[in-house]
Amino acid sequence: MTSEMFWEALAAIGRGASTTLMLIGITAIVGLFLSIIAAAAKRSGIRVLRAAVIAYVELIRNTPFLVQLFFVFFGLPALGLRLDPITAALLAMILNMTAYTTEVIGAGLDAVPDGQHDAARALGLRPYVAFLKIILPQALVVIYPALVSQIIIMMLESAVVSQIAVRELTHEAELWQARTFRAFETYFVIAMVYLVMSIALRRALVFLGKRYLAAGIT
Amino acid sequence: MIEFSNWDILRNLLFATRWTIALSLVAFIGGGVVGLIIMSMRISRRKVLRNFAAAYIGLFQGTPLLLQLFLIFFGFPMLGFRIEAWTVAALGLTFYASAFLGEIWRGGVEAVDKGQWDGSAALGLRWMLQMRLIILPQAFAYVRAPTVGFLVQLIKATAVTSIIGFEELVRVSGVINNATFEPFKVYGIVAMIFFCICFPLTWYARVLERRSEAFRSH
């Protein structure tokens, strides 16, 4: 490999990796936000909301992400909703992620002792203030490791969005191997980049969790 | 354009489903056998084996399944072997499953009280017999639910093998799409087929989970 090609390869990896990280970053933030709402809706005591959240979670959890992606990208235009690849990928990733994290957050909320609800009410806090300031932070501490794992899993699953021509890491690899005919080497390097990214992302998220949520997070 | 009735679409998709199911079964059984070996290495007294198993698990859990499939698909021909899409799919998913099952089962074995090892050693049992007669039967109670849960993950993961050209459900749906131009319907049906296979298993995993919680609280 000439040195010129080496820098080109490095640039392609950098571009691909940053797109992958951008996708997972947006997915994690929006997914977390939506799943807190969904988990709260499930516990709201309104039966229609509860049923809707359960149906959504079960539907997503029992179908492959690739099918969800194809449904969004190829299927939705039939309803007049045409999305560009990045938007379709993000929509599918957020839909998928939210279903899993809704379950995780639900489990975390269950883990907060009932006494905390009573104490919050005794202090005269409004229900939503009690939820945001007392219950949710405690739930997040309990489930933080599970959330981190879910984010890593989603990042690895996002490799298949290359199939709708989103130029993330795997798609850059596909372009590169089509150009150089060095398929095995290319995919090996990219697999290692994913490995490093998943280790680094886990470390970074645990660090942030320790810093801002609770010192005991591992 | 050839006319396809809804029945034609459904029939062809159901016909492809048998490959999805066959691949899931092969990978589950193969992954179970390899997973048992990986799990034994992971809890072995020899550090070399422990480290190898940890690296193996880290590698397969830290890289995307799609990249693992690509590496097998392009790696074997480099070594001079011809390899079919079916073999790539079966091998790839076996490795993938073994890493996850090995880790799930390790958790179960480690949850068995340490005294059980001492007790069975005091009876004069060797490691293999300790494992087979004393430890695994007890660990089984802990790992049944997560094992069934992982089977659902594995069935969904078969979708990714469509990308390397294995003719399972998603691959065939792509072909049908190209002929019918009805992606909304086709991918909708595909999602429903996956749901019908996975949801009963998810349900069963939940029943087992509840049972093992009752078992633990005794």
Automatic annotation (TrEMBL), chain A:
<dbReference type="InterPro" id="IPR000515">
    <property type="entry name" value="MetI-like"/>
</dbReference>
<feature type="transmembrane region" description="Helical">
    <location>
        <begin position="130"/>
        <end position="153"/>
    </location>
</feature>
<feature type="transmembrane region" description="Helical">
    <location>
        <begin position="184"/>
        <end position="201"/>
    </location>
</feature>
<dbReference type="GO" id="GO:0006865">
    <property type="term" value="P:amino acid transport"/>
</dbReference>
<feature type="transmembrane region" description="Helical">
    <location>
        <begin position="86"/>
        <end position="109"/>
    </location>
</feature>
<dbReference type="GO" id="GO:0022857">
    <property type="term" value="F:transmembrane transporter activity"/>
</dbReference>
<comment type="similarity">
    <text>Belongs to the binding-protein-dependent transport system permease family. HisMQ subfamily.</text>
</comment>
<feature type="transmembrane region" description="Helical">
    <location>
        <begin position="20"/>
        <end position="41"/>
    </location>
</feature>
<dbReference type="InterPro" id="IPR035906">
    <property type="entry name" value="MetI-like_sf"/>
</dbReference>
<dbReference type="InterPro" id="IPR010065">
    <property type="entry name" value="AA_ABC_transptr_permease_3TM"/>
</dbReference>
<dbReference type="InterPro" id="IPR043429">
    <property type="entry name" value="ArtM/GltK/GlnP/TcyL/YhdX-like"/>
</dbReference>
<keyword id="KW-0812">Transmembrane</keyword>
<protein>
    <submittedName>
        <fullName>Amino acid ABC transporter permease</fullName>
    </submittedName>
</protein>
<feature type="transmembrane region" description="Helical">
    <location>
        <begin position="53"/>
        <end position="74"/>
    </location>
</feature>
<keyword id="KW-0813">Transport</keyword>
<keyword id="KW-0472">Membrane</keyword>
<keyword id="KW-1003">Cell membrane</keyword>
<keyword id="KW-1133">Transmembrane helix</keyword>
<feature type="domain" description="ABC transmembrane type-1">
    <location>
        <begin position="17"/>
        <end position="205"/>
    </location>
</feature>
<dbReference type="GO" id="GO:0043190">
    <property type="term" value="C:ATP-binding cassette (ABC) transporter complex"/>
</dbReference>
<dbReference type="Pfam" id="PF00528">
    <property type="entry name" value="BPD_transp_1"/>
</dbReference>
Automatic annotation (TrEMBL), chain B:
<dbReference type="InterPro" id="IPR043429">
    <property type="entry name" value="ArtM/GltK/GlnP/TcyL/YhdX-like"/>
</dbReference>
<dbReference type="InterPro" id="IPR000515">
    <property type="entry name" value="MetI-like"/>
</dbReference>
<dbReference type="InterPro" id="IPR035906">
    <property type="entry name" value="MetI-like_sf"/>
</dbReference>
<keyword id="KW-1133">Transmembrane helix</keyword>
<comment type="similarity">
    <text>Belongs to the binding-protein-dependent transport system permease family. HisMQ subfamily.</text>
</comment>
<dbReference type="InterPro" id="IPR010065">
    <property type="entry name" value="AA_ABC_transptr_permease_3TM"/>
</dbReference>
<keyword id="KW-1003">Cell membrane</keyword>
<keyword id="KW-0813">Transport</keyword>
<feature type="transmembrane region" description="Helical">
    <location>
        <begin position="186"/>
        <end position="205"/>
    </location>
</feature>
<keyword id="KW-0472">Membrane</keyword>
<keyword id="KW-0812">Transmembrane</keyword>
<feature type="transmembrane region" description="Helical">
    <location>
        <begin position="53"/>
        <end position="79"/>
    </location>
</feature>
<dbReference type="GO" id="GO:0043190">
    <property type="term" value="C:ATP-binding cassette (ABC) transporter complex"/>
</dbReference>
<dbReference type="GO" id="GO:0006865">
    <property type="term" value="P:amino acid transport"/>
</dbReference>
<feature type="transmembrane region" description="Helical">
    <location>
        <begin position="141"/>
        <end position="166"/>
    </location>
</feature>
<feature type="transmembrane region" description="Helical">
    <location>
        <begin position="20"/>
        <end position="41"/>
    </location>
</feature>
<feature type="domain" description="ABC transmembrane type-1">
    <location>
        <begin position="17"/>
        <end position="205"/>
    </location>
</feature>
<feature type="transmembrane region" description="Helical">
    <location>
        <begin position="85"/>
        <end position="105"/>
    </location>
</feature>
<dbReference type="GO" id="GO:0022857">
    <property type="term" value="F:transmembrane transporter activity"/>
</dbReference>
<dbReference type="Pfam" id="PF00528">
    <property type="entry name" value="BPD_transp_1"/>
</dbReference>
<protein>
    <submittedName>
        <fullName>Amino acid ABC transporter permease</fullName>
    </submittedName>
</protein>
